[in-house]
Amino acid sequence: MGDSPLSRRTFLSAAGIAGLTAPLLSACGTSGPSGGGKGGGKTLQAWVLQDDGQNPIQQASLDDFNKSSATKIKLVEIPNSGSSGYTDKLRIGMGSPNPPDLLFNWGTGSIQDYAQSGRLVDLTPHLTSDPTWQNSFLPSVLDAGKAADGKFYGIPMRGMQPVLLFYNKTLFAQHGQQPPATYDDLLKLVTYFDSKKIQPFALGHVDAWPNLMWLEYLVERLGGPSVFADILAGKPNAWGHPLVLDALRRIQDLVDRRAFGTNFASVNYVNDGAGLLFAKGKAAMHLMGTWEYSNQVDKHPQFAKNDLAFAPFPTIAGGKGDPNSVVGNPTNYYSISSRSKDVNAALAFLKKEMAGAMYVDKLIKAGDVPAVSGLEARLSASPGPEFSKYVYQMVQKAPSFTLSWDQALPHVFTDPLHNNLQKVFLKKLTPEKFVQVMGQVK
Prior knowledge:
The protein has 442 residues and is an alpha/beta fold. It has helices at residues 8-12, 55-66, 86-94, 112-116, 124-128, 131-134, 139-143, 169-174, 183-195, 209-223, 226-232, 242-256, 273-279, 291-299, 301-306, 343-353, 357-365, 385-396, 405-408, 414-425, 431-439, and strands spanning 43-49, 72-78, 102-105, 155-156, 161-168, 199-202, 283-289, 308-311, 326-329, 333-336, 401-403. The two termini are 30 Å apart.
């Protein structure tokens, strides 16, 4: 959040979350003209977010492609403010006679309606017929560019942002503690730090979405990715899965144990409320996406340099989830409109540039951790090489990477999910009532 180039607001476009899967304006066919990368002297449009710190890198990739292509691609920065955010403008653009040729998106739910109505190019045959291209991306992240039909519609074009358990290593050392390997360890740490008048976890409850990370990871560790996959697929009674109820009960147990302190209901994340508690040593841990690292570097550089450490979310005894699986935000993607003026040129651009050395090196130097295979040595050029390598290796070995629920689900779920989960944390809603209410959202 804040001004960091890797903040969740930039990466997820929080202002536009609500419009991610709003109904499309009109249907269109699945076929479109494809003039070929060397044909016609056409100019294509690649839509991205305006005021995104990485746009100069996107422009450099287009400049490189345009040098050798008859069809040119122009970067079009779309405002993500005012009466409508990027996703609203994208929805209008995709329903117009001249949709963008390449469109920046978040995979999964953000492209579901476009894929379902034939507005996007199915990239599956292009990837499977070119194993070198397909294998140039980390599998769990490439998979998150699929729509509900299991076909690929997005190519990774930015850094990865899994959710990590951040902790204050200086504070832990002073108290002779270790980061939790198991959920029982986590509960013991909660009890210990609470007894020392140190808040165990920072939590930006006011902004709602930070609460969701707890539900996402607890469900993942208890049941694996299939539990949420059933919710995403709209299967009957999926919200009422016993492991969803188990996770919600564990959240309320954590609240009872004062895991988040006693004043979390008034703490925000966006304005550095939770981050400041963590940086000042008033909270020992913080479950947050990787943007927390860059936010701490920006706002509390001494803490980031001397005290900030990170670990995976702990395992749960008896849980079916793979301990290496992660949740969060796999990356951003480029998709191709099926009505592009030159589908072949758009494909040629994605093949040449998105895993290309120049583009990837620029992302790394800007602090991103690209979803590209074989980067270990090159990450030494990152501003924070230790952290970048940790994130890369974490995602590299992840068998699954579940997209944040409020991004993956259709927009109609966003407000009920946020609002009702807040009530669960505040003990104003039982787990049973939560799953009942969510099961009624259509």
